[in-house]
Structure formats: C-alpha cells, structure tokens
Design a protein that fits this description.
Layout lengths: L25 H16 L4 E3 L9 E4 L11 E11 L3 E6 L9 E6 L1 E7 L5 E7 H13 L11 H24 L1
Antiparallel strand pairs: 1-2, 2-3, 3-6, 4-5, 6-7
The structure holds nickel (II) ion.
Length: 176
C-alpha cells in the first residue's frame, strides 16, 4: 500500500467530473486500499479519488468514532438511491481545504448503491455523520467542494486564504 499526496484547493483537478469504473479490478482495489491508508494518515474520515489526482468515481469513508472499531467503506460508482427530506447540519471540513470549516445541510438519511472492492453490488443505508461524509465525497466526483454549498462571499474568502497559504509554502520551499 502507498500513501499518496493530497491535492489542495484551489486546483483545477478538484473541479473535474470523474468517470465511472467499468469493473472493480485489482488496480481499483489497490487504489481503494491506498486511498484508505492516505485518509487514515491525514487523518480524515473520507477521501475521493480526484483528491489524489485520479478522475475516477471511487471514494473511501470511515465515520466511526474514536473509541469504536474502524469501519472502512470502499465504494466505486456510488449513487444515491433515496434521500430523506429531513436535513442534517454539520460543520464540514475537507483534506483538500485544510483548516477551513463551514456548516452544510444535507439529507439526514440516504440509501447509496455502489460496487465494493470485490466488484459486488452493495446497498448501504446511512444517516447523520456517515450520510454527510458519503455525500461530501460523492460531491468531489462531480467537481464539487463543500464550499460550493455556502455563500460566495464565504467561499471566496476561504479560497483566497488557501491561495495565500500555497504561495507562502512555495516561497518557503524556494528559500530552503
Ligand atoms: Ni473533501
């Protein structure tokens, strides 16, 4: 397994629509395992393939609590089969937007269909944090970030700060 570098916004690679997987073969299963390892190390509770520069419809999540056993879920071609009218609000963050958070409202309960790491068709009912996490990662597959759900004013402020942080980092690296 391998830990992969995570792309930080703003970046055109995070704005691309990802392509579906034909079938989950050994290469995709390895990608899923690498993504999970990258996510745990970060640490984060979800990661989408475009965040490591792969424009394929693959996500990994683990929304288990600190004192619970790990509950990794690997999904290819996830699709929402049903969503509740009831919404749930959560202060979201993203490994591609480090140190920035904003409250986003999404359906509280969803049923999601996907292919697992063995290419088997699965359905999962998720609610609250797990549901939010899956929807957040699925957004990445359509080039959407959590800041696309908030006001343009707040979004631009966050993206400006990230751009500035990138410049500082590049400057520091050049000075070394
Ligand atoms: Ni994210």
């Amino acid at each position: 397994m391998a830990v992969l570098p995570i792309i930080i916004a703003p970046d055109p690679r995070l704005k691309k629509k990802c392509t579906p997987i034909d079938r989950v073969d050994d290469d995709i299963a390895t990608l899923m395992a690498d993504m999970l390892e990258t996510m745990y190390l970060a640490p984060g509770i979800g990661l989408a393939a475009p965040q490591i520069g792969v424009t394929k419809r693959v996500i990994v999540v683990d929304a288990s609590g600190k004192d619970e056993d790990p509950a990794p879920i690997k999904m290819a071609n996830p699709e929402i089969l049903s969503a509740s009218d009831e919404l749930w609000a959560y202060e979201e963050g993203c490994l591609s937007l480090p140190d920035h958070y904003a409250e986003v409202e999404r359906p509280a309960k969803i049923t999601v269909g996907y292919l697992d790491e063995s290419n088997a068709r699965q359905e999962l009912e998720a609610e609250e944090l797990l549901a939010t996490c899956i929807q957040h990662e699925m957004d990445h597959l359509n080039g959407m970030l959590f800041v696309d759900h908030i006001s343009a004013l707040k979004r631009n402020m966050i993206l400006r700060k990230l751009t500035k942080a990138k410049k500082l980092k590049a400057h520091d690296a050049a000075a070394d």
